[in-house]
Amino acid sequence: MTQLESARKGIITEQMEQVAKSEGKTPQQIMELVALGKVAIPVNKNHSNIVARGIGEGLKTKINVNLGISRDCTDFTAELDKVRKAVEMDADAIMDLSSYGKTQEFRKSVVECANVMIGTVPIYDAIGFYDKELSEITAQEFLDVVKKHAEDGVDFMTIHAGLTRSTVERFKKSGRLTNIVSRGGSLLFAWMDVTGKENPFYEHYDKVLEIFEYYDVTISLGDACRPGCINDATDAAQIEELIVLGELTKRAWEKNVQVMVEGPGHMALNEVSANILFMKKLCHGAPVYVLGPITTDVAPGYDHITSAIGGAVASMSGADFLCYVTPAEHLRLPDLNDMIEGIVAAKIAAHSGDIAKGISGARDWDYKMSTARKNLDWNTMFELAIDSDKPRKYRENSKPEHEDSCTMCGKLCAVRTMNKVMCGQKVELR
Fold first, then answer.
1. Owning domain of residue 230
2. What is the CATH number of the domain that holds 301?
3. What's the pTM?
4. Domain boundary, last residue among 356, 376, 409
């Protein structure tokens, strides 16, 4: 049985118990949320070393890391180094977006060495796997790639099933500035345009669900019409696709397949909360997975920051899963340092959102940090930090004269002064 079917039958699985323990909830609470479709636990039955994580209502906001090999960057070893570092930094999920070369070998290596959720976008792999023109790939061949990913132990897959021929016609009339920026969406759009056929993932959706149910893969319903600039946000094409995704969510649940729904990329900050509300309403409370959102288009090289701003508001508003964005977004394949910066930014956004929406225990972390700061306990501060390496290096590179201060304020440190005053000690500033 899948996690969803088990929950509906009142069965608490080992994975539900793992999630309950990590979230400070009871297994019964997790089971009930899974049964309602409000929480997903992506765990492919072939991913034997995974430590289960939950995504959804009332749980800590999770983050995903994208990586993978491409035609221009085929360094297998470098990408696996990223996988290990992402796991070390406690990322919740890794998406292998490989589109060239030995993709299956790489995918299997990722599944074997990572105990976190693994996601993929099978349509990317289809292009390299079949090594032929897009127009020559058949609907069955697309489905065969999906099955291969499921067999290899992938826990969730992005499937752009909401881009129907009807949505395509709506899009063509929309006058969008940046057209379709989803890579998977653009490939399907081109395939549909040249073949004149319906989206194979929509037309054969039941066959996709059969594969997902058998391996207990969570379907992540991709947003092919997500906005690629703030000018295109919340337009008719985006909303029409979202309505279709809501219908597909119900169909997946009927087949005992867990669902996540993917959300917008670029949009102005004041639109973020409304979009999360739309997604939750139209998709019946299913977990929401967002890329960013990126809240301004003018910061290439700093899109981990624009993404963290939007991600924090999205999380606060009910988003459950944030896809990280790195400084290299729109520019190149991220290197290891880009990935580290992206993970830190996404974790800041996720935790900020968790505080705002009152996730149990979220404030405790900050309380401990504040206590360490009050006590000028530098080592504890470093241990508690989202990224402990950077603050340690800052401290080591600029040593103060007195250990109970820093080189910004020295003896004028407000915390140092107040600690002495409150303890009845003499304050000496010279």
1. 42-356
2. 3.20.20.540
3. 0.95
4. 356
Q: Are 220 and 156 in contact (CB under 8 A)?
A: yes
Q: Quick one: average pLDDT of 123-144?
A: 91
One-character DSSP codes across 98-164? --SSSHHHHHHHHHHH--SEEEE-HHHHHHHHHTS-GGG--HHHHHHHHHHHHHTT-SEEEE-TT--
For residues 116 and 357, give the distance between their C-alpha atoms in angstroms, rounded to a whole number. Answer: 25
Whether 2 maps to a domain, the answer reads no
Neighbours of 298 (CB within 10 A): 7
DSSP state of 387: S
pLDDT tens digits for range 59-117: 999 999 999 988 888 888 999 999 999 999 999 999 999 988 889 999 999 999 999 99
Q: Last residue of some domain: 356, 373, 389?
A: 356
Report the amino acid identity of residue 399: K
CA separation (Å) from 293 to 147, 212, 325, 346, 360? 31, 28, 9, 11, 25
- Under a CB-based contact definition with an 8 Å cutoff, are residues 113 and 84 in contact? yes
Say whether both 398 and 284 belong to one domain: no
Amino acid at 60: K
State the Cα–Cα distance between residues 37 and 256, nearest whole angstrom.
10
